[in-house]
Design brief:
With 112 residues, this protein is of the alpha/beta class. It has one domain: STAS domain (Transcription Regulator spoIIAA, 2-Layer Sandwich). The chain is 37% helix and 32% strand. The chain contains 4 helices and 5 strands. A 5-stranded mixed sheet has the order 1-2-3-4-5, sandwiched between helices. The protein is globular, with a radius of gyration of 14 Å. The termini are far apart.
């Protein structure tokens, strides 16, 4: 899994690419820890390029959310693909961690 970081004011977006599974927990934790040292108030996990999440990844997202809440910071999940969104919903994670949906207007092209 590839992780890239984009900083905007007090918000950091971590863009994940590939499968987010148990074997990827350490790189994810390290990326999260690296942004934790900044004056960041909000962390957005961009899931638009993630094709699969396993139960370990779901647990890690929940633990990260709780840790950030304790630090008075927020965690959001952004733009999950349909399969990933279904996994998040089956685990009821969307009831705890906010999910940002893609804006439909930016994805729909007007026909000429």
């Amino acid at each position: 899994m590839k992780i890239t970081q984009e900083v905007r004011n007090k918000q950091v977006t971590l863009k994940l690419e590939g499968n987010f599974t148990y074997t990827q927990r350490k790189p994810f934790q390290e990326a999260l820890k690296a942004v934790g040292s900044n004056q960041v108030e909000e962390i957005v996990i961009d899931l638009s390029q993630v094709t699969f999440l396993d139960s370990a990844a779901l647990g890690l997202l929940m633990i990260s959310h709780r840790q950030l809440q304790a630090e008075k910071r927020t965690l959001s999940l952004a733009y999950p693909q349909p399969t990933v969104r279904q996994i998040i919903e089956l685990a009821n994670l969307h009831k705890t961690i906010p999910v940002i949906e893609a804006q439909v207007s930016s994805m729909v092209k007007k026909s000429a």
